[in-house]
Amino acid sequence: MLGDDRRSGIDPMFLQRVGLAFLLIALVLVFANMPAITGMQFPDPDDTLRLVQVRDLLAGQGWFDLHQYRIDAPHGGVPMHWSRLVDIPLALSILVLTPFLGAAGAETATLTLVPLVTLAIALLLVGRIAWRLLGEEATGFACLAMAMSVPVISQLRPMRIDHHGWQIVLALVAANGLVSRSPRTGGWVIGVALALWLSISIEGLPMAAAFMGVLALRWLRGHGEQAWLLHGMGALALSSVVLFLLTRGFSDLHMHCDAISPVHLALFGWGAVGVALLSAQRPRPLPFQVLWFGMVAAGGVAMILKAAPQCATGGGFAGLDPVVQRYWFQNVAEGLPIWRQSVETILAIMLPPMVGLYATLRLASESRAWLRQFWWDYALLLACAIAVAVLVSRAGAVAAALAAPPLGWQIATWYRSLRRVDRPGKRVAGLAALATVLVPALPFTLVTMAAPAKAAGEARPVSTCNISAAGPALRSFGRAEVLAPLDVSPRILYESDLTVFATAHHRANTAIRDTILLFMGSEAEAHSALVARGTQYVALCAGLNEPDFYARKAPNGLAADLVHGRVPTWLTPVELGGEADFHVWKVER
User: What is the pTM of this model?
Assistant: First the structure.
């Protein structure tokens, strides 16, 4: 039986185990990503644009000014919904390293170091839960389980500098708060972590509700547990106001569905006041407490529906143009539900958290006293994380990270059992099952690799588009505007002073629509629109998914003409001196 045996989370042996795991994982990641690091190849356009945003900040753009002025420049640029909090470690690292490595070297080092530091923090937080509650062996396996998780490690590898890694870290900080011996301390840790998470990305709102739901259950169980919710809600409300003032100021008080806005601050304040008023009531019969929580929750929902009814249905992507919804948003795989993913992706996202949930339920049934209730709380939290991942697949990283401690315990339990197996065949089968839990998509990958290769010509060759090689030519164009595919545009911004029509960021809703319609419309319509707007260049990377998608959907459109070599007479090729797959044409009047 497992009792309430929370040992210290700061122990030399603990730091040694997690440190060794981090060094091994970091070496593998750096080695595996070395071509991307040396070639400055970002894993996602969001990472490219994040560095562009940091460059703008270091060049003197205002702290509260989150516009990207080189996106849709004729209309004043695009106000990004990203948080400056993620820019801080990147900007500080570049500032500190530039005197020693130069500007380019400092950026390269930062793109490697900041994700690895984020990974180290995540491993410490996962290991801390396992170390305090599950033992030394489970700690090592928990770190291994997180490191082998594709959804997690894809967000914590070198060059991945966008906000998703910090979301994982803050989810784990909040989970560590649940382990605290002090309800006051634990509540504040949870509340501040959730406020930071929501300030970085409002996508954390469902999990913030889940954490507060767990604290509400602790309140209802009694036994002096009310302080968890009281301090958690208070910390969330107060920290959110402070963070809003520090990162947004008073420059933008509009209602946004994709970022924390004044109505959200009012919602958190409403919840904190409601909990405080209930705490002051004496006596507090259980039915009265449940009714009170229901009234507070209903009031919060009514507040959101009154202030921003569009957010109830569209979330952060409310108000997208139908063209943008159909041809862009519905094709962003990471934002789609799990049933819209490939088999190997479903396995990678769902299997480890589901096994982790099974392990958590086992821990709850085998534990006693405080620890029994803790694991039931953790099971509820993990189940909510899995449900969110089912609806939005990129949330699978948070589910996998939360699942790592109980999954590590389960793997350690299975491994101990396997060591007692005498028959080699059963032992090999057991080890294969363990490998499947750690790397769930591996069997599918092996089957795919063993399948007969496609006949020559059945698939397009992999694109060798290398925009960086054309950087010197692009920089010679000055601040002219270029029409380019959405996913290519951030790299053009990174390599040059050009402005672009749009990037794949939903606040550029109108510009995204115009980009799609131009590439899918006829070349005559595109020429007329580009001349009227004053756009000087058109760019295209052959062999990439986006222009191929436009060409398939509109075989007679501009993108189809360019992909298949039918260049209109009003486009004059520009010599770039780079890779053949990247083309730029000058728009002739």
Answer: 0.92
Are 92 and 229 part of one and the same domain? yes
Q: Token digits for 277?
A: 């008023």
List, in sequence order, every residue forming a beta bridge with 446; answer none if it has no partner. none
Distance of CA 480 to the CA centre of its chain: 32
pLDDT tens profile 292-330: 999 999 998 888 888 877 777 656 676 788 999 999 988
Q: Is the dihedral of CA 196, 198, 203, 206 positive or negative?
A: positive
Please check whether residue 4 lies inside any domain of the structure. Answer: no
The Cα-based distances of 236 to 46, 81, 136, 202 in angstroms read 28, 20, 33, 13
DSSP 576: -
In a domain, 59, yes or no: no
Contact of 551 with 559, CB cutoff 8 Å: yes
Q: What helix, strand, coil percent values describe the chain, rounded to 5? A: 70, 5, 30
Clarify whether residues 308 and 379 are in a common domain.
yes
DSSP string, 438-456: HSTTHHHHHHHHHSPPPPT
Query: Is 434 within a domain?
Result: no
- DSSP string of 97-133, one letter each residue: HHHHHHHHHHHHHHHHHHHHHHHHHHHHHHHHHHHHH
Strand 67-68 versus strand 78-79 pairing type: antiparallel
Is 463 domain-assigned?
no
**Domain that residue 515 falls in:** 470-587
Are 199 and 89 part of one and the same domain? yes
Last-in-domain residue among 395, 411, 427: 411
List Cβ neighbours of 436 (8 Å cut-off, separation of 6 or more).
Answer: 351, 442, 443
Q: What is the DSSP string of 2-15?
A: B------S--HHHH
Please report which helix (H) or strand (E) contains residue 227, including its range: helix 226-247
Residues 508 and 399 in one domain: no
DSSP string, 50-83: HHHHHHHHHTT--TT--EETTBSGGGT-EE----
Each residue of 516-575: pLDDT tens digit? 999 999 999 999 999 999 999 999 987 788 999 999 999 999 999 999 999 999 999 998
Considering the domain architecture, whether residues 97 and 169 belong to the same structural domain is answered as: yes
Give the residue from 361, 391, 411 where a domain finishes. 411
Where helices occur in 420-508 by DSSP H, the ranges are 424-438, 442-450, 471-475, 489-495
Q: Based on the domain organization, do 407 and 478 belong to the same domain?
A: no
Find out whether 224 and 204 touch, Cβ atoms under 8 Å: no
Asked if residues 354 and 437 have their Cβ atoms less than 8 Å apart, the reply is: no
Number of domains in the chain: 2
